[in-house]
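Justification of resources, computational component.

The compute hours requested in this renewal are based largely on the per-chain cost of generating structure records like the one below. Each record pairs the submitted sequence with a full structure-token output. That output is archived, and it is also reused by downstream analysis tasks.
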Amino acid sequence: MHLCFLPQSPLMFKDQMQQDVIMVLKFPSNSPVTHVAANTLPHLTLPAVVTITCSRLFAVNRWHNTVGLRGAPGYSLEQAHHLPIEMDSLIANNSGTNKRQITDLVDQSIQINTQCFVVTADNRYILVCGFWDKSFRVYSSDTGKLTQIVFGHWDVVTCLARSESYIGGDCYIVSGSRDATLLLWYWSGRHHIIGDNPNNSDYPAPRAVLTGHDYEVVCVSVCAELGIVISGAKEGPCLVHTITGDLLRALEGPDSCVLPRLISVSSEGHCIIYYDRGQFCNFSINGKLLAQMEINDSTRAVLLSSDGQNLVTGGDNGVVEVWQACDFKRLYVYPGCDAGIRAMDLSHDQRTLITGMASGSIVAFNIDFNRWHFEHQNRY
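The structure output for this chain reads:
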């Protein structure tokens, strides 16, 4: 078995570690887990944590909803002994890895990172960019087969993002490219294609073209509720566009904040941008710089809690940290992991944080934003 249970020995781990870490899952492949998508809503046909490695081997790991407070409705002692994530049987048995391997070659100059992938909200399709032919592609997570190739850019596609999904699974997909533009696409949850015409799936047209950058686009985030796309390029400020393609404003950071790497935007209008060399900025949607901090880590993953109040970060140091988003007050530091963090996501109930590690494993942490919220209020 490639499942690693954390030993419950007080000599090996402090109490803190036992409370914080639910489980570690080590995949047979040692390739770093570079993308994690936790689509765990109970109504899904297959609630799962989808993981993708640098070698583009993906796994659809079934999610068991075991999180519950002792004595609360839905909690049972029987469930409590079960782990929330069950490894994809095709990966665990090493039996069907051909159904889990994306074999199409990406451009050699592309550094595979978490933004090269998007998983649809029903866990059924994986979108991948970085191909030499300037396309991005859609694959079935069930069979690993290519289902659609989408062209539109004039150079290699460097990053992808998806908005929150509507009822029926429709959402926006944004692609950013070395051609310094972004294209906004519509994903049809009904037809499982980019575009809304299944008869014309070979040549879907983007809904909007977003211009204004002078250099290669390296990161992007889209929020359908606010109707905005925020993007960053190798040089120059981050830009805010509407989803119809109008350029609203530039987000000018301090002089030390150059080369944006990661962007996360909340429906409350907080825009968190991580720049090279440990620099973070929080902008309002109107372009006002609300907070800035510098941390001593090369951050690889950031995410905001669903209410936009909390920021979670992880990077090469292998430490997950939780911050108050509005002013970057540190709320909590998790025990350090033995490998760098490459990706992370939160379960739908905001109670479990799953991180993808450089060692080829994933770690599931208990997380409780309410606890820190009240503690912080009482303290100040």
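The longest helix spans residues 369-379. Residues 1-13, 69-77 have pLDDT under 50 and may be disordered.
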